[in-house]
Write a structure and sequence with these properties.
It is a single chain. This protein is of the alpha/beta class. 39% of the residues lie in helices and 17% in strands. It has a four-stranded parallel β-sheet with strand order 1-2-3-4. Strand 3, helix 3 and strand 4 form a beta-alpha-beta unit. Helix 3 packs across helix 4. The protein is globular, with a radius of gyration of 14 Å. The chain starts with 8 loop residues before the first strand and ends with a helix.
């Protein structure tokens, strides 16, 4: 039995027809997707279902800014300093 003290995330390498059912069965707090699979509509759909959206592996400035624009809740990156800098905006 999964420990309810820990949040779980459903990790998907690609979009699946039953991904929401899988996330629900897992009791997931988040759904985690490869950045190539993420769109604004996917983020909106996940949020409407009560999930946080995390994107992996987001390294380029262009991809970081796109994920921020789409409204993801978190990023996995090999360059967290880039994420912090780009989230802060110009001159901050």
């Amino acid at each position: 039995m999964a420990d309810p003290a820990y949040s779980r995330g459903a990790l998907f390498a690609k979009l699946l027809p039953d991904m929401w059912d899988r996330a629900e069965r897992l009791g997931a707090w988040s759904v985690n997707f490869n950045k190539a699979e993420i769109s604004r509509s996917l983020v909106e759909d996940a949020h409407s279902r009560g999930y946080k959206v995390l994107a992996y592996t987001v390294n380029s400035n262009t991809d970081i800014l796109r994920m921020i624009d789409y409204g993801v809740d978190g990023l996995f990156s090999d360059y967290p300093d880039r994420v912090v800098e780009l989230r802060a905006g110009p001159g901050k």
